[in-house]
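re: that complex we talked abt at group meeting.

here r the seqs, copy pasted straight from the sheet so there may be weird spacing, ignore it
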Amino acid sequence: MSSAFTSMTVAELQSALQDGATAAGVTEAYLDRIAAEDDALGSYLHVDPEAALARARDIDSAGTAGTGLSGVPVALKDVVVTEGVPTTSGSRILEGWKPPYDATVAARLKTAGTVLLGKTNMDEFAMGSSTENSAYRVTRNPWDPERIPGGSSGGSSAAVAGGLSPWAIGTDTGGSIRQPAALTGLVGHKPTYGSVSRYGLIAFSSSLDQAGPMARTVLDAALLHEAIGGHDPLDSTSIDAPMPVLAECARRGAEGDLSGLRIGVVRELGGEGHADGYEPGVLSRVAEAVALLESMGAEVREISCPAFDLALPAYYLIAPSEASSNLARFDGVRYGLRVGDDGQRELDEVMALTREQGFGAEVKRRIILGTYALSSGYYEAYYGQAQKVRTLISRNFSAAFDDVDVLVSPTTPTVAFPIGARVDDPVAMYAADLCTLPASLAGVPAISVPCGLSDGLPVGLQIMAPALADDRCYQVAAALEAAQDAARGSRFLDQLPVQTVEGLR
Ligand code: GLN
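got the structure back, here u go
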């Protein structure tokens, strides 16, 4: 099914709605496309067409469509709790659970008048880099259906790149917004830790988890971020500071003047002596993007952040440790699945059976790893050491930001890999996060913006900024997006599968 609406940016959809298009018409276009394509693409776990249409009609009756985000459809990663709407976090253990409340992110989007299209597929409890750890279905990359769409927010990335939603919410603990965005040609931003509420996100690693926007353009990502961000008293780690103005920054960035901006290229992320495992095509696109930023007046230098070399082992101790505590709540008593409750068995036996059947292999691996790292006698050697590395990484960032305004790197070392290629090799899977982990551990904002293709597949440039300087990420990303489009003579957006792939139209 083809519709002009499904290939528009959100900024264009807003104009269409202001010019008389109806929220129901826009919603229907997306629902038609989901019906036609999603059996093959696998981007959604739950879609309720009647509910979406009813909501859109209500907005049309109220006459608000086109005001702000009113009437614009949205998809939410299934880790975001939605009142009365099934929420599984990609796990069997939550199958059938209908939450009694909305996450703050979901509530704010509702208040803004968006229409929920559905909940998107993800790696179970957001643990993974390919969405292959979902307990429910495989998600394909719309650029090449034999490849993964990234993860863990791979349902969101596939849906937006394939035109099954104009934009989507993802979550990022170690890269799960930025990496899938990079692998599907989208813009994805991980906000400063604490600047978007975690209330109602099913917790994976609470000191790292952050929700953020995935969109087809930098401006759209900024608009979505503005709708969900800002202080929330329901999240104890929420920062009580004014939100930086983001959409305005994206618009200003697109004007392309970067004079005075100092950019640091991180040596440890693909630079000399650190390029093992990085594809040459990825490094070339990134180098070209940096040269383009320089041509707009930015001053570029290489920056060394030695502790970044230890980000991967540190993350894979800290995140599983926190997960082993967070996931203890899934006991077969309070939510979702319960196995073996026949009135005869002891409670702990029912819990064990429920967890045995309810959790997938990767989740069990993380719980075991995390429990071990926190156990008495090993705590200092593993968890304690990892926390020290985390501190060193933060110090590397602080020192770097004394000298430069932003740091850049590839978003991920390779383009999208084939489905199945890394499922039996967890360490190879973890390597997809090499570039995204430092910003996660330090809590600083980072955006991934498309910077061209390698072998016909998208490459992302990561731009990292100091805490609370999310606006800088958007400004530089918008400058790059505009300059690349101008050099190409066409919008990158027009190369997305939603526009070009047969069957995905
Ligand atoms: N791929 C990383 C992991 O498996 C990061 C996941 C995420 O950011 N949610 O932990």
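couple things i noticed - The mean pLDDT is 96. The chain has one domain: 2-268+279-304+400-502.
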